[in-house]
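Dear colleagues,

As part of the handover before I leave the project, I'm documenting each prediction I ran so the next person doesn't have to rerun anything. This entry is a single chain, and its sequence is reproduced below.
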Amino acid sequence: MTPSPADALLDKLSTTPTLWNILRWIVEAGFHGERLAIARELRPWAGDSRRFLDFGCGTGEFAATFPPARYVGIDLSPTYLRFAGQHRPGSYLATSGEGLALADSSFDAALVVGVIHHLPDEIASAAIAEIHRALRPGATVLVMEDIPPPDPWNIAGHLMHWLDRGGYIRSEADYRAIFGPGFAVERSYAIRSGICDYAVYVLTRSQ
């Protein structure tokens, strides 16, 4: 099926990291909502020695919110990872979410922002299982996924949600099913970041 002009434009922008970052920075008001959630739920600068995994890191937008020596961003896109390695702190690795090239129990916390709603159930479940394998027991996972704007007057947000290329935006019950028995959902809530709305899930890895 031929993509719409809007989809074609977004596809073009997404292959150019600098332009894509500018667009996202504008519509998400500097990612203020996500950064607050990261600081509150993961406490990256708490003064401990935890290692952090950024699953689907893209261009490494949130890398600077973590101690560089203890941050690893993973993604499938060589273009995004090349940009991240040149412009962001931390370490980066190209690997498939269904088979992470990471040692068992090698991370203490993970961040997943806007990734799962791009994956069908089978692949999403496999990725969550791999994250579980790479984390130590008791590790925290912060998941943020796009949701329809609850405010009917957020016209720009509704437009962005309509343009979103993720084809698997799920209900809370469906996300909980994807997380499976390997993770306990400690809490969930919604946030606004610019014109974009997210469902936030704070998970704890089971023993």
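The chain has one domain: 5-205. Confidence is low (pLDDT under 50) at residues 6-10.

All the best with the project,
I.
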